[in-house]
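Exercise 7. Given the encoded structure of a 208-residue chain, write a plausible sequence.
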């Protein structure tokens, strides 16, 4: 492997969230010490990642149809008739959803917004504001009673909550929907994907 390949691979690793130059370089040299079989399997998994993964048409979470036994365009959560239809919980990203679901403290439906609303900047293109409004309006006609805004206890998380409350207010008034947010239990700066089960349960039960 030439030094140019090492540098290019390091640059790719740096694009991963939370990974800096030193960590990225450490990954490259760690891979260099692995055997060819591992490298080949890793490469095949990366190539198949997009082909074998779908994005749900309703909540926009990523899922694997073959593992979930799905044939529709929706994930197992959205197609599950036993889930609590009157509640819709909004999260920033898939990892937040997975953490809440794994904790077993919520049995309603989800929506993955895709990003947060930053302060004084252009709203990110990947944020699904229009899709959220359309989903909320559709669900409102089918018995939706509460929208829960579940975001990290950060400045951008709080800003996103306020922004969503504003754009969802017309729907809330029209269909008599409660818009709530996580209650006490989340320390300032806490990222939702790292919160333990008891803290999540407390925050959800004490939502306001």
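Solution.
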């Amino acid at each position: 492997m030439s030094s140019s390949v090492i540098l290019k691979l390091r640059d790719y690793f740096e694009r991963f969230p939370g990974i800096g130059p030193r960590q990225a370089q450490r990954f490259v040299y760690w891979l260099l010490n692995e055997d060819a079989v591992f490298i080949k399997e890793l490469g095949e998994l990366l190539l198949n990642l997009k082909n074998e993964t779908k994005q749900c048409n309703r909540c926009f979470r990523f899922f694997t149809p073959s593992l979930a036994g799905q044939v529709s365009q929706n994930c197992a959560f959205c197609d599950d008739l036993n889930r609590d239809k009157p509640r819709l919980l909004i999260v920033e990203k898939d990892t937040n959803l997975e953490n809440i679901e794994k904790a077993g403290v919520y049995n309603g439906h989800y929506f993955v917004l895709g990003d947060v609303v930053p302060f004084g900047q252009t709203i990110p293109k990947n944020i699904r504001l229009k899709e959220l409004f359309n989903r909320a309006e559709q669900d409102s006609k089918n018995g939706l009673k509460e929208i829960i805004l579940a975001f990290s206890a950060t400045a951008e998380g709080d800003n996103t909550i306020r922004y969503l409350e504003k754009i969802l207010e017309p729907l809330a008034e029209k269909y008599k929907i409660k818009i709530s947010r996580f209650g006490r239990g989340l320390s300032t700066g806490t990222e939702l994907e790292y919160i333990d089960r008891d803290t999540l349960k407390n925050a959800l039960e004490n939502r306001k």
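Remark. The chain has a mean pLDDT of 89. Students should compare their own answers with the one above.
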